[in-house]
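Researcher: Go.
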Amino acid sequence: INAISDEYYYVRWDAWAAFGKLCEIAATNEVMAALINATRDEDSHVRSKACEAMGKLGEKAATKAVIAALINATRDEDSDVRSKACGADRKSVV
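Model: Structure:
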């Protein structure tokens, strides 16, 4: 979990990619709060991976805060972030 706050974007990016692969096992309150924060990361790759991970977390991640973060991400300046946010809400989160 420390890697998601690393100063280097590529470490944060890899951390979110790993969380996405863990799926519902990783859907703790701490992880979901960190995912929400990651949707506002300065790096678009990190924001994109956070949205992708949210889509893989399943029903447990379908909280109002997560859904709000995904909706906000659909308005991101980066097209990949918008795409991942839309993909997440088509999966099991929304």
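Model: The mean pLDDT is 82.
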